[in-house]
């Protein structure tokens, strides 16, 4: 290599997901986990208690 030869291009990892896709996967995973937690709460506490907890949480948020 002499002083006038440009360096070779940097290798890119083609297997790495794009940042937008990674964010979408993370948001989708979070939604899935929250839905799963809600189903577990409903299964263990019953519909009446589950509805009371959800409505109380929504009232606290707003």
Strand and helix map with partners:
Layout (H helix, E strand, L loop, with lengths): L18 H27 L1 H15 L1
Helix pairs in contact: 1-2
In terms of quaternary structure, the protein is single chain
Biggest sheet features = none
Class derived from helix and strand content: mainly alpha
User: In whole angstroms, how far apart are the ends?
Assistant: 66 Å
Calculate Rg over CA atoms: 24 Å
The portion of residues forming beta strands comes to: under 5%
Rounded mean pLDDT is 82
Number of helices: 2
Output the helix-strand order.
HH
| Uncertain regions spanning at least 5 consecutive residues | none
Number of strands: 0
Form type: rod-shaped
Helix content range: 55-70%
